[in-house]
Each structure stands twice: as structure tokens, then as C-alpha cells.
């Protein structure tokens, strides 16, 4: 019985010693086993000494990690080609628009009028005694594209020079006295109309109304085109006395141009963030 136990122990010890020897004599089996294991970034794989083994150098990562080529650091294939091209173009467009921006800081006052901003809405308010003068306009779709479409080619640089974009919004002027409001809707006159106008006005009255309390759709309004000429001139003089002159309206255009441009840049930046997913 003791002889049998000793024989078993000898065989077991021989197998234990034989396993490392087998690994040395038959490295191919070890490599096959290694291929089945998950190839992770461990200290052993990162060690430079493994490069000495030609078999180890043949190991390839089955599913390597690839970051999005747009440089956002996200997972592979998160952004399509069109998204990457759009983000690249937006980056260049934002840089160009910021460089062309003339007014970086939007003023809080214009000729004594306090400026209030609410998105695309702009409100100018001035109090004089018991009277309140309010000017309201919206900068959406106000850029003058007629002048911008007239392009001139510079023969010295072979470059097309476009006219400067200007915002010319339609604006409302409310003269409030107590609970009564005399309201005007005004707009910029076309260039040819300014040349034929004997007063050289850059804006005109589109319609006029007067109401008590809040304005509603039931409020009657009359078009400025059918007003008596003398009455029209007197109303224009009234607006000028209240501070709504040609010079002030020109400043409205300059303010609206700068503010619209800042909103456009913000739109480009927000679009870039949306597309890139940041």
C-alpha cells in the first residue's frame, strides 16, 4: 500500500514539473491560449521586454478603441461626415464673423433712451415729465439684402466686394400720456425715395392710431399713404420733437445692425455646440 502511494506522488510531482517544461518546448500552444484571452492594456502588455518575443508581436487587437475623428473625444462613429464638415465650417465662420464684428459691447443707452433686450426684441424707453416715449422693434429678418446683392469686382485684387450689411427694422413709436397712447408704425424709406424727398427723411410713417389702455386688433389705424400731406408733415415734426429724428433713426439702424450681428454669432456658436454634442 505504501508503495502505491509513493508511485502516485511521484507521477503527480512529475506533472507539476512537466507543465513549465511543456510550455517552453511547445510555445505555440501558449500563444493559442493567449489569443483566446482578452487583450487588455495591462502592465505586462505595456512592458517593452515583450517585443523580444516574435510570437507576441504578431498579436493584434480584434476591436481597437477609436476616437471620433472630429477631435471631440467621443466614441467611434458618433459624428457623421456631414456633421464633422459642418462643425469645421462653423468654426471658421465664427472666427471670421468675430473678426468682422465692429461693436463688441451693445450699448445700454441711445440718446437718452434706456435699452431693454429680450431675444430679438428691442425696447427703447425715455420718460419726459408725465409723458413716456417708447420705441420697439424686432431685429429678425431686418438685414438690408438689396444693397448687399450689388457686388463690385475689384480689378486690383480680383476679389468681389459686397456692400456692408445693415439692419433696417420697422419700428413702433408710442407716445403715452396717462392712459392714452398715440402710436406710430414707421419704416425706413428705400434709397430712391430718400433722393426724391424734399426733406431728405430716411424713414416714414406707415400708419397711425390712438387708443386707451392696451392696444388690440379692434383698434382703428390709418395708413400714412392716405394722410393729408400737411397732416403727415406735422406728425413728422411731432416725432422729431419727441426725439425721433433722422439722426436718431440712423442710430437705431446702427444699433440694430450690431445687435443682430451678435445674435447671428451666438446662433452659429449654439449650432456648433448642438452638432458636436458638447
From TrEMBL:
GO terms for cellular component: mitochondrial matrix. One of its GO terms (biological process) is cytosolic ribosome assembly. Pfam families: MAM33. InterPro entries: MAM33, MAM33_sf. Belongs to the MAM33 family. PANTHER family: COMPLEMENT COMPONENT 1, COMPLEMENT COMPONENT 1 Q SUBCOMPONENT-BINDING PROTEIN, MITOCHONDRIAL. This is Complement component 1 Q subcomponent-binding protein, mitochondrial.
Amino acid at each position: 500500500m505504501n508503495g502505491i502511494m509513493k508511485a502516485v506522488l511521484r507521477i503527480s510531482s512529475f506533472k507539476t514539473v512537466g507543465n513549465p517544461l511543456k510550455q517552453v518546448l511547445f510555445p505555440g500552444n501558449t500563444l493559442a491560449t493567449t489569443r483566446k484571452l482578452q487583450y487588455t492594456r495591462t502592465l505586462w502588455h505595456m512592458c517593452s521586454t515583450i517585443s523580444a518575443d516574435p510570437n507576441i508581436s504578431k498579436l493584434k487587437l480584434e476591436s481597437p478603441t477609436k476616437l471620433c475623428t472630429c477631435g471631440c473625444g467621443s466614441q467611434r462613429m458618433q459624428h457623421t461626415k456631414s456633421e464633422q464638415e459642418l462643425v469645421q465650417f462653423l468654426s471658421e465662420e465664427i472666427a471670421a464673423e468675430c473678426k468682422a464684428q465692429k461693436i463688441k459691447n451693445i450699448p445700454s443707452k441711445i440718446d437718452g433712451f434706456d435699452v431693454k433686450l429680450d431675444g430679438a426684441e428691442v425696447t427703447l424707453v425715455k420718460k419726459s415729465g408725465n409723458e413716456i416715449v417708447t420705441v420697439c422693434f424686432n431685429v429678425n429678418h431686418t438685414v438690408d439684402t438689396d444693397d448687399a446683392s450689388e457686388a463690385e469686382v475689384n480689378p486690383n485684387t480680383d476679389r468681389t466686394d459686397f456692400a456692408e450689411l445693415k439692419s433696417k427694422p420697422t419700428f413702433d413709436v408710442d407716445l403715452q400720456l396717462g392712459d392714452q397712447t398715440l402710436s406710430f408704425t414707421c419704416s425706413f424709406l428705400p434709397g430712391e425715395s430718400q433722393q426724391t424727398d424734399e426733406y431728405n427723411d430716411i424713414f416714414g410713417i406707415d400708419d397711425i392710431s390712438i387708443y386707451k389702455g392696451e392696444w388690440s386688433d379692434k383698434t382703428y389705424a390709418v395708413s400714412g399713404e392716405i394722410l393729408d400731406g400737411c397732416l403727415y408733415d406735422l406728425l413728422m415734426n411731432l416725432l422729431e420733437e419727441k426725439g425721433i429724428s433722422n439722426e436718431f433713426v440712423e442710430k437705431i439702424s446702427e444699433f440694430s445692425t450690431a445687435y443682430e450681428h451678435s445674435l447671428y454669432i451666438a446662433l452659429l456658436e449654439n449650432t456648433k455646440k448642438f452638432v458636436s454634442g458638447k
